[in-house]
UniProtKB/TrEMBL annotation, chains A, B:
<dbReference type="InterPro" id="IPR020843">
    <property type="entry name" value="ER"/>
</dbReference>
<dbReference type="InterPro" id="IPR011032">
    <property type="entry name" value="GroES-like_sf"/>
</dbReference>
<keyword id="KW-0560">Oxidoreductase</keyword>
<comment type="similarity">
    <text>Belongs to the zinc-containing alcohol dehydrogenase family.</text>
</comment>
<dbReference type="InterPro" id="IPR036291">
    <property type="entry name" value="NAD(P)-bd_dom_sf"/>
</dbReference>
<feature type="domain" description="Enoyl reductase (ER)">
    <location>
        <begin position="8"/>
        <end position="336"/>
    </location>
</feature>
<dbReference type="InterPro" id="IPR013154">
    <property type="entry name" value="ADH-like_N"/>
</dbReference>
<protein>
    <submittedName>
        <fullName>Alcohol dehydrogenase</fullName>
    </submittedName>
</protein>
<keyword id="KW-0862">Zinc</keyword>
<dbReference type="InterPro" id="IPR002328">
    <property type="entry name" value="ADH_Zn_CS"/>
</dbReference>
<dbReference type="GO" id="GO:0008270">
    <property type="term" value="F:zinc ion binding"/>
</dbReference>
<dbReference type="Pfam" id="PF08240">
    <property type="entry name" value="ADH_N"/>
</dbReference>
<dbReference type="InterPro" id="IPR013149">
    <property type="entry name" value="ADH-like_C"/>
</dbReference>
<dbReference type="Pfam" id="PF00107">
    <property type="entry name" value="ADH_zinc_N"/>
</dbReference>
<dbReference type="GO" id="GO:0016616">
    <property type="term" value="F:oxidoreductase activity, acting on the CH-OH group of donors, NAD or NADP as acceptor"/>
</dbReference>
<keyword id="KW-0479">Metal-binding</keyword>
């Protein structure tokens, strides 16, 4: 089959790769209905993160189960399933605490930008929908696989509560869905930091009540001003750079909560600063598996439509175009159809 | 009057200082019944923290109100009161959220190692006992002014829950009272990191179920072993060094909570590490004022006896001896009587 490989900076190839098979009795192989390009795929694409080359790409997926290993008990061929970027057994102590992305047996799921995908620990990782979804639900079901689950974790980890003032740093797909998540959790005021009119419009559509275009010290001053000098209750950092983290920590009120859900690149924090910020800080790879049943149900019932972050819909064979469009910020997020 | 001044490393002088007076209408002046030396006093004493010299020392105190300013409404002369190291108005947004040590009008209370002390924002800062306490209660009432309140915050910020496994890093007075606090909050297993037999004995008396003597990588391995490789639910970092923070972050389970309550000195944290530790991190200057009513009541009702951390009882005039004994770790904590 043809799958997506990254050879080096800006070098995405759609080429012959081995068809996945059951390697362990707990595996499933799924036929991918839709996959997409993640903001985190852009780090190695831009040469900003070391990686093996060539590397199979893609970790967001939904599709139909083709085959399962002999030890798989609950997932069955023919089901439509959604999983997350870390396979998890969903039974170890970390999973039981709701941190499936730190599962003691976790395994990164790579190679989803392809027609077929092997998913380890299928029973723990995959969640089946009630039936085969209609086509209009596919983008939103795909979104819960990572970007919506990550936005939701950003709001959850930042302890968004009814009536809260929340700030979302970052207007990528995760940031936009973090706005939606904060809204669903009852935030009264949601300040989105964004400089792009098209993304501002989506942020407003999803629940943002204020937009701050300024960055750095100016952005911090603007938010301090909007919160009457108090700072926000919850700050959702959805970028992962030193600048975005600095902003996120300087606009939270003492005793407030800052979450961070993008792998930090070049972020160094001084203990003394964190001490006097008096912030609750929590982040990490989103334990999407914890949220999948609830988020799938919300999509199924059409309470939420996170698929609207996909503003570029391409056949999988044009995956290189999808990377280019996202790298150049011409697209928020690309959905790929095998 | 004679008060305590720090001139430079190891240079504590008990010398003539101005008697405090009401400077602002919201001030009170109290006659200090007892004060003490804080672990944090040792940073500048050891020359490890820049400071103005000479600097009036002491920020833990209890005593009888001598005089109040014209705007003070609830605190009255003759009351026995306890306050914290940060004066707070107890009405601003940060105070209302329970973060009085980040009060918008906070003011550091210095100079408590003296017979008389000016306390700003008296109504917001001081809490009076039901009546004048008997002598046996004085050490424990003094302890809630900082060291017990800080140990309590360590447990609170580390989200200690009934049945939890907690690790306490540091066997100073705060660490020991963090053990007591974790016990009171229902931790089932409390692992105290301590290399000193006398302190281990106190830790056990206060509720520690396990002692780990090893430090650094060995200590981390030992705790991983004791928790079957899972890590602890709650880790209470009560030291403030790079090594102690490193230990605290490496023994918490993913999704667990690490608190830090001593001003970090030389602590740098990599964002990527915090991301993959998956830890909840919270710390800062303990908002002791939040806990004062409850902790005073617990002492008054003899439910707790945090005063047992005082193992050196000296007349205030011997304050330099108290610093020396604590610096050389001959004493856990010294109480000073004017």
């Amino acid at each position: 089959m043809l799958g997506t490989m990254l050879y080096g900076p800006n070098d995405i190839r759609f080429e012959d790769v081995a068809q996945p098979t059951i390697l362990h009795p707990t595996d499933a192989v799924i036929r991918v209905t839709a996959a997409c390009v993640c903001g985190s795929d852009l780090w190695p694409y831009r040469g900003l993160q070391a990686h093996d080359a060539p590397m199979p790409m893609g970790h967001e997926y939904c599709g139909i189960v083709e085959e399962v290993g002999s030890a798989v008990k609950t997932i069955r061929p023919g089901q439509f399933v959604i999983g997350s970027f870390f396979a998890s057994d969903n039974t170890c102590p970390h999973c039981q605490h709701g941190y499936q992305s730190s599962c003691q047996n976790r395994e990164f799921v790579g190679g989803a930008q392809a027609p077929m995908l092997r998913v380890p620990l299928a029973d723990g990782t995959l969640v089946a929908t009630p039936e085969i979804p209609s086509a209009d639900l596919i983008p939103s079901l795909l979104a819960v696989s990572d970007v919506m689950g990550t936005g939701w974790f950003a709001a959850d980890a930042a302890n968004v509560r009814p009536g809260a003032t929340a700030v979302v740093v970052g207007d990528g797909a995760v940031g936009l869905l973090a706005v939606l998540s904060a809204k669903l959790m009852g935030a009264e005021r949601i300040i989105a930091m964004s400089r792009h009119p098209d993304r501002q419009a989506i942020a407003r559509q999803l629940g943002a009540t204020n937009i701050v275009e300024e960055r750095g010290e100016d952005g911090i001053a603007r938010i301090r001003d909007l919160t009457k000098g108090v700072g926000a209750d919850s700050v959702l950092e959805c970028v992962g750079t030193a600048q975005s983290m600095d902003q996120a920590l300087k606009v939270v009120r003492p005793g407030g909560f800052t979450s961070f859900v993008g792998v930090p690149h070049g972020v160094e924090l001084r203990g003394e600063d964190l001490f006097f910020y008096h912030v609750h800080l929590h982040g990490g790879p989103a334990p999407v598996r914890r949220f999948l049943p609830d988020l799938i149900a919300k999509v199924w019932d059409k309470q939420i439509n996170p698929g609207l972050v996909f503003d570029l819909d391409l056949p999988l064979a044009q995956v290189a175009d999808a990377y280019r469009a996202m790298d150049e910020r011409r697209a928020i997020k690309a959905i790929l159809r095998p």
